[in-house]
# Entry
Amino acid sequence: MTKTCIAIRHVHFEGLGTFTQPICEAGYQIQYLDPTRDDLEPAKDAALTVFLGGPIGVYGDADYPFLKQEIDIAVCRLKKKQPMLGICLGAQIIARACGAKVYAGNNGKEIGWKAIALTDAGKKSVIAPLGEQGAQMFHWHGDTFDLPPNATLLASTDSYPNQIFSIEDHVLAFQCHPELNPVDIEQWLVGHAFEIAKTQGINAFNIRKETETFGGILLQKAQQSIKSWLIQHNFL
# Structure
């Protein structure tokens, strides 16, 4: 029996990326939904729902009303303990659904490649490969959130402590971007060209070169982590 993974995608170049292969190999048929055009109700009861990233903030739900529906979907899935993944904006949606505050960060934009520091819980979790020596994480955000009261913190950076968290066995959320497939970096650079231009100390050349160095390692570690999450929590 085919299972459906619904991924809510806010901008075309921020898809499942490195997560695609492990999810497909686990027997899921991936369906993308565009919250600006599509009916999101199927995401409420899908076998797996993923909230992807985007250049807006959860606190902007008055300007982007579809965010309210996404939060409601996350609330419903949390109550039923249905599996969810959240990335960047998606992690913020899940945090908000848990009642946590989401807000603009105080430490500037965190854009580019930077290692994450695993907590003790993170070192024992499925995301442990992402913090191994030689691994670097891709970041692209300026917002953050308070850790939900029912969540376990798995990884941090010095600028933004709440990078990866889990909720029991059914939720894994990333403020950072382990899903970045290095072959997609040019789409990111074009899609975020305005933000790059106005952010001091950030330029496309450096991001591109560092992606050549670290992107392949991240792809391998991210796939390993998501595969382990799907297996360990019996989402196969």
Q: What stands out?
A: The chain has one domain: 3-232. The mean pLDDT is 96. Residues 121 and 234 are 20 Å apart (CA to CA). The two ends are 11 Å apart (CA to CA).
